[in-house]
Amino acid sequence: EATIVPDPSWTCGMPGGIPVPERGELVFRATLELGETHDVGKTQFGQRRLLDVKGGTLTGDGIQATFLTGGMDLELTLSNGAVELEQINILRASDGTLIYLRTCGVAPAGDEVVRIIPDFEAPNSSSLAWLNTGKFAGTRVVDAAAGTIELEVYDISEVAAGEPKIQLEDPEGVPDQSWECSTATGARGSSVFTETVTLGSSLSVGASKRGSRNIIPITGGTVTGGMLLSSLSGSVLPGGADYQLIGATTTLDARYALSSNDGEVILVRNCGPFGALIPVFETRADGPYAILNTKEYVSSDPGGAAGGVSLTFYERR
Fold first, then answer.
1. 87 - beta bridge partners?
2. What is the C-alpha to C-alpha distance for residues 110 and 7, in angstroms, rounded to an integer?
3. Which of the residues 13, 29, 87, 121 could staple to 100 if both were Cys, CB 3.0 to 4.6 A apart?
């Protein structure tokens, strides 16, 4: 029953604290159906796991929707036991409207209920445009036995972040994960690995509060090692997408995971405008590909390949 104040590195847009959601007005309840759970291991940020979302339903007085397959629930447990969460999902409302939903969350050590702040991008021209400007908070609970995630989201526009407060603090000496894309720049050095990524049909949210969101689902692919990681080979896991934002310029933001043939999982975020893509990798810190966590890289632009695109990553100079 306390306000949770996130660490400054992961504020979820509410640096003054996330109030108790249930003090607001219920907007919807949702049940997400889970596919595989990928234990990435202890990475440079903490203990990471990826939960695949393969579908789900959302029900509220003002919105009815389904979750499309390919969603990602990225749970990070820090060494002090606190949790930082990111979810990325695509909703299809009952009238066919597509909605991009990116959710941030935190929880104190020992609390299985993650307090979340959902951020919606719905078409400005749709009847659901109110989602773009609302102030929402909620809860996220994993039911491993049922293979589901339960969400409850509330309108907290009239709820203050009052006392008592629980202040979360990230462990010292550990790098912070970033909500935003990297803006680093650099030239290409040695090649690291090459991917051929297969893609599904594009999904267009249309003009929304940040620009026009175009989503290209990732359905699979292959990975081949380069000069720096010649031993790496494996597959691109189905799930995630390139969540492109089209405005004055086009910004790519591809989120997905790789599975190596020797059983490692590598999370990838490859983000930026054409000609300046910067990838961030996350994998087991004591694993064979830990160099992906500690060095800095650049990416080629996506080029054409059978059923999708091909990219090569390089060490950054």
1. 73, 103
2. 17
3. 121
The pair of structure tokens assigned to 311 is 């990219």
How much is the pLDDT for 172? 96
Q: Note the pLDDT of residue 248.
A: 86
User: Are 3-167 and 188-316 equal in CATH topology?
Assistant: yes
Report the CATH fold assignment for 3-167: Porin (2.40.160)
Q: What is the SS3 string spanning the chain?
A: CCEEECCCCCCCCCCCCECCHHHCEEEEEEEEEEEEEEEEEECCCCEEEEEEEEEEEEECCCCEEEECCCEEEEEEECCCCCEEEEEEEEEEECCCCEEEEEEEEEECCCCCCEEEEEEEECCCCCCCHHHHCCCEEEEEEEECCCCEEEEEEEECCCCCCCCCEEECCCCCCCCCCCCCCCCCCCCEEEEEEEEEEEECCCEEEEEECCEEEEEEEEEEEEEEECCCCCCCEEEECCCCEEEEEECCCEEEEEEEEEEECCCCEEEEEEEEECCCCEEEEECCCCCCCCHHHHCCEEECCCEEECCEEEEEEEEEC
d(CA 217, CA 58): 21
pLDDT (tens digit per residue) in 65-96: 999 999 999 999 999 999 999 999 999 999 99
- Report domain 188-316's class: mainly beta
Q: What is the pLDDT of residue 247?
A: 87
- Rounded distance between C-alpha atoms, residue 20 and residue 15, angstroms: 15
Domain range annotation of the chain? 3-167, 188-316
